[in-house]
Amino acid sequence: MKPIQVGLLGIGTVGSGTFNVLTRNQEEIRRRAGRGIEITMVADLNVERAREIVGDQARVVADAREIIANPEIDIVIELIGGYGIARALVLEAINAGKHVVTANKALLAVHGTEIFAAASARGVMVAFEAAVAGGIPIIKALREGLTANQVQWVAGIINGTTNFILSEMRDKGLDFDVVLKEAQRLGYAEADPTFDIEGVDAAHKATLMSALAFGIPVQFDKAHVEGITKLSAVDIRYAEQLGYRIKLLGIAKRRDDVGGIELRVHPTLVPAKRLIANVEGAMNAVMVQGDAVGTTLYYGKGAGSEPTASAVIADLVDITRLHTADPDHRVPHLAFQAGELRDTPVLPIDQVRTAFYLRLRVADQKGVLSAITSILAASDISIDAVLQRESNDGENQTDVIILTHETAEGAMRAALAQMQALPTVLAPIVSLRKEELA
């Protein structure tokens, strides 16, 4: 049987890994897919570099549209990234009747609804396992492996850069700015790390997971996004003393009590005994809670040339197996049949319910703690634990650390405003969310 012919748009880190793994494991992949899969065309602006990678095994062009126009190409892999030209090329490939594989989480999180609708109308597949958590097969788990379940929540460490930074801050007691520079020196952070450290990259991925978990359209614009730039080493240390670790989590949670979905990314205290709290360095992990299966955990490398290539090639194999199937009998793009997606609203942050960690710098005098706890009690916010540090010799101020039970975000914000107005609260209050993940 004639091999499936693939066109590759972009042969950078992931593209070169995809080409190399597909070449190295060609026979094993053929045995799994039922026929050969070959990258026969590559488009990259750096034509010379691309030719150095592929040699004479594929034709190299500078114009990606030459691949889309080639009637011999069955599948287009988009590894260009970004929202602009990538969107145009993916839609053109779909309109030309090509199946698409992409690792572009930003593109799908923002324009996924348009892209999936176009693919369904044209009867082609868009596969995106590599768009979330690199080599971890979390898309397949949500879309197929957990089909029997009503997913209750998904929570993941889905950005390796921020996890590396937080791990280093905890291990070495260093502040964010110092560790960021080290992460850039080691290649874990980009020269412009904004998308990573501000939580945007994780929010793109959490948006896709929320759609797969709950059968809703992708709605990146509704996600609440906070990064790690304001985190202090002192809060990581206090969290440790209280039995918690701080991780940047992407969280999607079903809220049947109000008929909505929580979709948020932010630093989160997690009990140190949880497996996900012990995911260190640049590794990724995703927890999924299903009503039938209970809690499952998926762990592995979330980025890198060959780990991400593993996911890209898995998509190529899936499409090769299914491309001759009736489109109505293929696995739906977002796990649920296209006509079964629901308009369940993503809740505003004020309606989110979670527990909190609070750190207050206060005057070391009588009545301070009583005034703070009175405000919390009046707001119907119950306290789980209190840690009051003794002031150093010669100081007249100290830190009070409070862990609360679960409450509405809006209630906590109102209480924080009242506490901040107290004359004995001497600095901006640090507020972090806490999840038990049990």
TrEMBL record:
It is an enzyme of class 1 (oxidoreductase). PROSITE patterns: ACT, HOMOSER_DHGENASE. NADPH binds at K105. The keyword Ubl conjugation does not apply. Residues 357-433 form the ACT domain. L-homoserine binds at E190. NADP(+) binds at L9, G10, I11, G12, T13, V14, G15, S16. Signal peptide: none annotated. GO terms for molecular function: homoserine dehydrogenase activity; NADP binding. Its EC number is 1.1.1.3. The active site is at K205 (proton donor). GO terms for biological process: methionine biosynthetic process; threonine biosynthetic process. InterPro entries: ACT-like_dom_sf, ACT_dom, Asp/hSer_DH_NAD-bd, HDH, HDH_cat, HDH_CS, NAD(P)-bd_dom_sf. It comes from the Bacteria. Pfam families: ACT (PF01842), Homoserine_dh (PF00742), NAD_binding_3 (PF03447). Pathway: Amino-acid biosynthesis; L-methionine biosynthesis via de novo pathway; L-homoserine from L-aspartate: step 3/3; Amino-acid biosynthesis; L-threonine biosynthesis; L-threonine from L-aspartate: step 3/5. Keywords: Amino-acid biosynthesis, Methionine biosynthesis, NADP, Oxidoreductase, Threonine biosynthesis. Belongs to the homoserine dehydrogenase family. This is Homoserine dehydrogenase. It comes from Sphaerotilus natans subsp. natans DSM 6575.
